[in-house]
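Known limitations

Files may contain more than one protein. Parsers should not assume a single record per file. Below, a two-record file is shown to illustrate correct handling: read the sequence, read the token line, then continue until end of file.
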Amino acid sequence: MTGVANDNPLARYAVHTRTNKAWSLEECCQRYAEAGFGGVGVWREVVEPVGGETAGRMVREAGLRAPSLVRGGFFVSPTQANRDKAIQENLKCVDEAAAVGAEQIVLVVGADPKVPLVDARKQVFEGLSACVDHAAASGVKLAIEPLHPMYAGDKSCVNRMREARLLCEAIGHAIVGIAMDVYHVWWDPDLDEEVRLAGEGGRLFGYHICDWMTPTTDMLNDRGAPGEGCIDLPGITRAVLNAGFDGLIEIEVFSSRHWNEDPSAYLQTLCRSAQQLSAAVTGLAPA
């Protein structure tokens, strides 16, 4: 690979614990470090059994970074009581991320079929705004993840990079940015321009990769390992790097098919996927 022949290309990548959901956090940290990955994307479900402080120690002792804690958000509800509860849960999530040492919280902002999208986006603005000061004081970034439009009715009223960028600009705080997952935004004809704008504004906090399988048999749990489907990962990755992104690239794959494989063999598949992407993208050096 041009310019980094003596370095380990996997050091530029983190793997999300949900990708190998059969393993505990301790197992993920051990296996990812042994494979040569640079980090682990930590899901809250694997933190709960051990607590944030212990989880953070596991990550550090493995020599890994934690680019993200997944996930916060879900600010939208028809009732004020539930919206207030969501804010308190997100403040708790900030504390958890700080204990783990995670650089950012990935936010799935929420949606509800009983709340019109215009109102839902106002609720997200209000919920996020209520968390900004605590996140800033804790040194934890808040990263809005746009979700594919198929989730607009019940999971996220923010579905394109543009909507996420405008929300960031409306809040107007450096602690708020975007976690871009190719699974959700690869189809957007404005993606290159929005990646550029996010980079220029210092808002491109996270970059998550997997692949889109065709035909897709399950809209949540039939994602492909990077390079296995139809997403132009080399092209999108070049755009992300050109926008100034210098963080860890996070491998996040929800796949019933791969979850049924031997997890160690599946991890080797992910190693090959990352190595092949690095070989295809000149300048993709370890972070």
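...continuing to the second record:
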Amino acid sequence: MTAREKLIVALDVPTLDEMAAIVTAIGDTIATYKVGHQLYIAAGPKAIAFLKERGKRVFLDLKLHEISNSVAAAVHAAGKLGIDMVTVHASGGRKMMQAAVDAAAEFPGMQILALTVVTGLSAEDMAEIGFVAGAAEQAVRLARLAKASNCHGVIASPHEVKALRAAIGAELRIVTPGVRPAGAAIGDQSRAGTPAQAIQAGADAIIVGRPIVQAADPAFAVQQIVAEIAQAE
């Protein structure tokens, strides 16, 4: 993969018009875009259709976490829209993840990525929820479960990538959210890292949203991040 193919832009915007303006401004530089809860609830399949009509890969980040039948049905619906990647919560368990993988098999190339530990959770948050393990230990446990469930990859913060790569090997993709260019505001991310840190730790791809979509010049912001990825390789 080239440096630009390793960058996934998160379209964290509230309207279809704003999304269209950003994608148009970035142009051909980026091949993959992430559609999360905000945009999908606001624009639904229209957002997906806009991206697919322009030849983009779509990462639908809804973090599915339900009974197996419901998750399988959701994955099947996503496949019919042409979605390339769908996220599920690894904490939903082996049966749920396997059901998602089985549903995706009907659509060639569609991948199921399992979220390990949300990047916004701090050590204090995890203790309050009731996790005995820290973020890194929990991420490794869930990544191993995702691998056993035949998922195609996992989602984890830059802080856990190195441990995950050692635990699950090179077979599964590691995609990293919570990435902020040096000097950018961390915002609500508790376990953030720079593009270079994520790539050097072993991430296959990184997700960047607000530093790009809120930039005065999204295309220039993309160019800077791609250059940082290239330097880190």
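Parsers that stop after the first record will miss the second one. For reference, the second record is described as follows. The mean pLDDT is 93.
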